[in-house]
Structures are given as structure tokens and as C-alpha cells.
Amino acid sequence: MPSLPTCSALLIQVRLQTQTAYRGIVDCVVKTYRHESLLGFFKGMSFPIVSIAVVNSVLFGVYSNTLLALTATSHQERRAQPPSYTQVFIAGCTGGFLQACCLAPFDLVKVRLQNQTEPRAQLGSPPPRYRGPVHCVASIFREEGPRGLFRGAWALMLRDTPTLGLYFVTYEWLCRQSTPDGQNPSSATVLVAGGFAGTTSWMTATPLDVIKSRMQMAGLKQREYRGVLDCMVSSARQEGLGVFFRGLTINSARAFPVNAVTFLSYEYLLHSWA
Ligand SMILES: C[N+](C)(C)CCCC[C@H](N)C(=O)O
């Protein structure tokens, strides 16, 4: 997960969405590398390494337990009596909503650190605003209050609730399309269906992802927004409708391999524990 391609994709996505200094993906990569060296691409990634495990357990745990409650069929019986897509969607939305609550403060810290463009500490150069994740949490707490740690949380919940519903529906649908009735999907099917589920979900999530990142940066140097709607309207007025698609390419490309592996691990764990 914390590989160079993954970290760079996440960093570039956030910078393209919240800063106007870059002309596109390549320009952002070049400027980051020149100014901050290879290490610059890993900025803000130490917290996500911890939070990914927590957040994914909440998402998949809540999803499968909600499905269990809705259908009253255990995981083993599920291939013979598959849940309806509405049930899958509701369970996905529930998982998405609760994972967003856990993700909010971690994601805020990640975005703030990723947006620091200062090169690594050099003698005589002014230090960056945040020295690291813990210092970042403490500074936000001090400067913006405890609620400051949940800046952008509403936008995050709006982004994740429906799009994670769609995530599980896409996955289930693709698996059922390519698997004979009553059988378990093959590993190849799981990888492809998981990949497409990630890409579809990220494509639909991108407009609100831009708004979420901008709201997380507000309170620092950028202007304050009155809410999600205000941020949408003023971003679109100033930069045109294209603003809602910033980071789309990079989000969807990164999502394929990441979610292919995520679903393969999920299916593997379900079968080895059930
Ligand atoms: C809902 N939204 C599209 C935002 C995320 C869905 C996929 C989550 C996964 N951990 C990933 O990072 O790709």
C-alpha cells in the first residue's frame, strides 16, 4: 500500500484538487520532484498506513453485518440465496457512512500534510507549518478547536455513503455476471470485479472529493466556506465546472489495482474464517 506509485497518486490528486499552481498530472509530478525530491511524494502517508486497516475493517465489517441483518442468510448460504441489489446497496451505504466517521480526522491530517510544498527541512529555510502528523493534530486542535479535526467531515460522508453503496453493487453485479449460479467467483473474477468497483466508485466520488479536500484546507490559507453548497458554488464560479473533475484520471487509475487486491483479501478472509 505505501508504495511510491500509490503515495504519488494520492499526493498529486490532492494537490491538483486544491491548488491552482499545476497545469496537470505531469507538471505536478515534475514540480514536486524538483522542489521536494522523491521523499516529497510520501508526505502525509504515515497516518493513512495506520488508518487504512481500521477504516477497511469498519467498512467491510459493517457491510457484511448489515447484510446479515437484512437477509438473515449466513455468508455460506449467500451464493445459493443471493441478497437483492437493494440490500447490497443499503449495506454498502451503511458501511460507507460509518467508515467516513472514522476516516475524517485521519484524512484531514493527510490532506494538510500533502499540501505542504516546502522541501525537507534545510538549515536557514523556514520550517513547514506542520512538522509531522502528531504535530499537525495538536496544531489543528489548538488553532481550530476540537471540531476543527472534523473539518470537511460532512462532505466526506456525502462522498462516501452513496458511492460505497455503488461500490458493493458494482462488485456483486460483475461477480454474478461471470459466475455460474450457486458457485463462488474465481480469483480472477474477484480481482476484475473489485477493480471495476473501485474505479466506478471513485469516478462518481470525484466531484465531492474535490469539495471535501477544499473544505479541509479552508481555515488555513484558503477562504472559509459556509458549507458544502457554498464551496461547490464558489469553486464552480471561479474555476468553471471542470473543477469537479480534478483528479478524476488519477483517482480512477489508482483505484483499480488497490480495490482488486482489497476484494481478493476480503473474499479470502471470509472463506478462511467462515
Ligand atoms: C468511496 N470512495 C470512492 C471514496 C472510496 C472507495 C474505495 C476505498 C478504497 N479504500 C480506496 O482507497 O480506493
From TrEMBL:
GO cellular component, one term: mitochondrial inner membrane
Keywords: Membrane, Mitochondrion, Mitochondrion inner membrane, Repeat, Transmembrane, Transmembrane helix, Transport
Transmembrane segments: 47-70
Membrane topology (UniProt): Multi-pass membrane protein
The keyword Transmembrane helix is annotated on this UniProt entry: yes
Subcellular location field: Mitochondrion inner membrane
Top-level taxonomic group: Eukaryota
Endpoints of the signal sequence: none
SUPFAM superfamilies hit by this protein: Mitochondrial carrier (SSF103506)
A molecular-function term among this protein's GO annotations: transmembrane transporter activity
Pfam families: Mito_carr
Residue windows of the Solcar repeats: 1-69, 83-177, 185-272
Family stated for the protein in its record: Belongs to the mitochondrial carrier (TC 2.A.29) family.
Protein name: Solute carrier family 25 member 45
Organism of this sequence: Pteropus alecto (Black flying fox)
